[in-house]
Write a structure and sequence with these properties.
Elements lengths: L2 H12 L3 H8 L4 H9 L5 H11 L3 H6 L4 H5 L2 H18 L3 H16 L1
Helix pairs in contact: 2-4
């Protein structure tokens, strides 16, 4: 897999679209299409910003090896993420006040 295929794979896994990645990483989304079309790796600076947003190493995006993020995540944590992925996606769409309310509710429930 090349750089952009690995980026797309991580985007799909994390349920982030290209536009959001570009916005967070601080570059134009058209750069992704251009990189795919020309089959080239972005500048080191851009690659680092993309890797940080995705929570993976630049090495992984360039070589497909040494995915530090996946090594750090235990199988238990991965199972939890998969179990609650739909809920997390819904929570992500809420306002920060609504998320704060959910956090307070969870804190109260866990005190019992």
């Amino acid at each position: 897999m090349n750089f952009w295929e690995l980026v797309d794979e991580e985007l799909k896994y994390k349920n982030i679209d290209r536009k959001k990645l570009a916005s967070i990483a601080g570059f134009n989304v058209s750069n992704i299409s251009k990189g795919i079309r020309e089959n080239n790796v972005p500048s080191a600076d851009t690659a680092v910003r993309i890797a940080r947003v995705l929570g993976v190493s630049v090495e992984y995006l360039v070589t497909g090896e040494n995915n530090e993020w996946s090594k750090k995540v235990s199988s238990y944590e991965e199972a939890l993420f998969q179990k609650y992925k739909g809920m997390l996606q819904k929570i992500e769409k809420l306002t920060s006040n609504e998320r704060d309310g959910i956090q307070l509710l969870l804190d109260k429930l866990c005190e019992k």
